[in-house]
Amino acid sequence: MFSHDSIRFDLLRQRAFNLRWATVPEGVIPLTAADPDFPCAPEIREAVIEYTQSGYLSYGPPEGLADFRTALQHYFLSNRQYSLPIDQLLPIDSAAFGIQVVCKSLLSPGDEALLFDPVDFLFQYCIEQAQGIPVRFPIPPGTEAVDFSRLEALITPKTKLICLCNPLNPTGKVFTREELTELGRIAVQHGIPVLSDEIWSDIVFEPHTFTSLGSLSHDISQHTITVTGFSKSYGLAGLRIGVLATENKALFQRLFETSLHQFTVHGANVLGQVAGTAALTHAQDWLRAYVAHLDRMRRLVSDRINSMKGLSTQTPEGCFVSFVNIEQTGMSSEAFQQHLLDKAKVLVVPGLSRWFGPGAEGYVRLSFATSEQVLTEALNRIEESL
Ligand SMILES: Cc1ncc(COP(=O)(O)O)c(C=O)c1O
Question: How far is the CA of 15 from the centre of ligand 1 (A)?
């Protein structure tokens, strides 16, 4: 399923945007946006085809399709030991939109929101869209046990939101139960809601295990808003489908109002929900095989990168990206990105502040959700360019 032959490069060149195959010159390998090169699970394709064949693609309910919410409720309960009321699970049009809804709901102009450094750009972007002030909490690559009491010191009367990204894109850290319990304690004690972005939570490598923040206790769940999606685990980024959930009824109502689903300004499209339902109910074997492939690829990348002069990386605990330290090359991350593009014809994401925060300088991020052949070719070219 995850062989080189299963990848349709002709279609990727037409359809894979966001810094990927459709946007780079012929011959360039884009290890950029975290979007897999593999087609989605056959079970998902079949469900979408079947739903579409009837020809009816009417409006869905503002609160989302019942089948999808049932599948989501079951997923949280069985995979995350997290019991969520079905009417407090809201299908939305992407995890990115979920982050935006949370920031828009909870932040007034001038409010502060805590976010990690480095972390995916979406948090800073959405905080600023809501005219909030991003306050960074450093978690450098390679950090083992995070001391969240240092985060507590950053809390002021203006702090209205804490953003957790678990697993952490781009460093691949998976937070332990102990770390999350401490973060939860801080949130409860200060009465500050936590946005728990768990979009990478299915891609966690043994012996690491994923804990969903909201599952830890009733008090913590009352302060947690979980956002997740289907772009990473199932390769459905183009369907723009995700979910937003909280056990806190009043908070859910506020988020639902901000989503504008009631007025059809936004809403999770029905095909995304059908695909999401099929993913959760029929594509679990596919997902297991996918994670096993990614596990092999992360080791391949780490072994090869760590053998190259001037480069080093930690083996990620989760996510399908490697965050590579390039400081020894003497180049800035932007200059190194350009060097790889010119000399190796490989495109990576530079550790610029606008992508991940100031703590990302000296690093580049590369995705390994591709075949062993593509990855080996890219790594060979990177090595030769050095
Ligand atoms: C942490 C994180 N959250 C959200 C997203 C966006 O997901 P979606 O495609 O569902 O908007 C990404 C994509 O890279 C991500 O890494």
Answer: 18
- In the reported structure, the alpha carbon of residue 232 is separated from the centroid of ligand 1 by a whole-number distance in angstroms of 8
| Contact of 34 with 70, CB cutoff 8 Å | no
Domains and CATH numbers, the chain: 4-40+284-385 (3.90.1150.10), 49-282 (3.40.640.10)
136 phi and psi, to 5 degrees? Answer: -90, 140
Is omega for the bond preceding 25 within 30 degrees of 0, making it cis? Answer: no
- Is the Cβ atom of 272 under 6 angstroms away from ligand 1? no
Residue 364 has pLDDT above 90, yes or no: yes
pLDDT tens digits, one per residue of 287-318: 999 999 999 999 999 999 999 999 999 999 99
**13 near 21, Cβ under 8 Å?**
yes
pLDDT of residue 1: 87
Mean pLDDT of the chain: 98
